[in-house]
Amino acid sequence: KLASKLMEGDSEILKKIQKTFGEESVVNGMLNRKLLRKKLFSDKKELKKMNDITNKVLREHVAEIIQKMRRINKYSFIVVEAAVLFESGLYRLMDKNIWVDVSIENSVKRVKTRDNNTEKQVRDIYLRQTELENIKGNVDILISNNGSKSELRKTFNKTVLPELMNL
Questions:
Q1: Are 111 and 39 within one domain?
Q2: Top-confidence residue, 8 or 47
Q3: DSSP code of residue 142
Q4: Same-domain check for residues 67 and 117
């Protein structure tokens, strides 16, 4: 959501997006998400173009937020949830990187329900995302999210929470 807010709040980024993806990609200062989703997740080259436009800005903004929070020194740890954590290079700013893995079957089922997308749309998005195999060396903690919310909570409390408390 932060990336979306940054894009929609930055006229220079919006201009770049419009120039790259066409006039109809930005309407009244707002991203045409439906059109962009269709373009970006049906062609890896298009997704790379968008990432080239947005990742540097996102990385700089998150780094700024983290620095401010560390200066305040009020927080034991800071959690950054980002779908593009690895693609954007944000993972380099983190003390620990957690990968929450889910099967394509579970992902399709959940996202179809949540976003009212077709199975094909969800599979296209899933297939364009970073695969665990490509970033394993940068993952400190790997947890599975193929069970229930209760199982995920138990795994988090057993695996992730102790690691965070040791930071």
A1: no
A2: 47
A3: E
A4: no
